[in-house]
Amino acid sequence: MSADLHIDSSIDKKQKYLFFRVVSFLSTLSGWCSAGMTLAAIAITCQMIFVRFALNGSTVWQTEAVVFLIVAATLIGLPFVQQLRGHVNVNLIPLMLPVVGRYFLAIFTYTISIVTIAIMLWFSFEFWHLAFTRGWTSDSVWAPSLWIVYSSLPIGFGLLILQLLADLIAVILKIEAPFGLGEK
To answer: Domain coordinates of the chain in residue numbers?
Structure first.
């Protein structure tokens, strides 16, 4: 049965499918956007420190902008981290299972992950839509439109679902090994 679950380890096989290339591009783009937002948050923090301590001035928008940028960077960066398999995982159970067991456990865990993130996507879109249609703004002096801030929720979760779906399909088509483990 293990010969039936042979994994084609060549990256070329995955790259020949347009869906995998598009999802990979979007996940990589999300990673770059996340990095850019993090750098912007660092620059704004440095500017805020300079204004407060060197110029003895007050800051109006900086703290809120940094918080929004870091939260958005976290959400937008989710698919990139998934693409790199950078999330914390415990592979004790997959290591104890035979190859066929790993295969079905991977399909199960990807499916449960997709369903869970789909629920989060649904409610985050609803939340974003409410902020958009009602014109919600922050309660601060700066008062940015919250639909812009909240857009990182459905964007991040939507891209994460695409990456998880690509990972699931790659396991089903035996392009990638379940949990990144070979036939050990």
So the answer is: 11-180
